[in-house]
Amino acid sequence: MIIYYYYYCCEMSEQEYSAQLKVPFSTSEEAKIAFTTLNVDCEPRKELIKRDITLDSSSLIVNWSSKEARLLRVSVNSFLDHLTSVVETLHEFGTEQ
Q1: Deepest of 24, 40, 44, 66, by most Cβ within 10 A of its Cβ?
Q2: Quick one: residue 94, left, alpha or beta (phi over 0 = left, psi -120 to 50 = alpha)?
Q3: From the CB of residue 6, how many other CB atoms can be counted at a distance below 10 Å?
Q4: Given this model, what pLDDT does residue 3 score?
Q5: CA–CA separation, 39 vs 70, rounded Å?
Q6: Which of 54, 95, 97, 47 is nearest to 71 (CA)?
Q7: Tens of pLDDT along the chain (97 residues)?
């Protein structure tokens, strides 16, 4: 299984920073497993950063917005660490039951 991380955008408006990440998976089942696993974790500072995860066929789409660039960076890095663990687990154990 090969997973590619795509940053679609990282923009800054007057008061807000945002980023979008699209992660394509080999199958929609793998995407659903990743979505279910990663959607459980909430942002610890909900009032300062917002993260939305959506499932689009065999891809995860993640959108962030924050008033602080540092919080956006920390959130994206943390998400990528968790995503890497999910991808490695899927690779090691597969999706067959």
Answers
A1: 66
A2: left
A3: 11
A4: 47
A5: 22
A6: 47
A7: 444 444 445 555 667 888 999 999 999 999 999 999 998 876 666 778 999 999 999 999 999 999 888 999 999 999 999 999 999 999 888 766 5
Q: Tell me, letter by letter, the H, E, C secondary structure of the chain.
A: CCCCCEEEEEEECCCCEEEEEEEECCCHHHHHHHHHHHCCCCCCCCCCEEEEEEEECCEEEEEEEECCHHHHHHHHHHHHHHHHHHHHHHHHHCCCC
Instruction: Say which residues have a Cβ less than 8 Å from residue 48's Cβ, sequence separation at least 6.
Output: 66, 67, 68, 71
Rounded to whole angstroms, the Cα distance separating 30 from 69 reads 31
Cβ 41 vs Cβ 63: under 8 Å:
no
Given this model, what pLDDT does residue 29 score? 93
Residue linked to tokens 């945002």: 18
Global confidence as pTM: 0.79
Q: Residue for token digits 């995407």?
A: 31
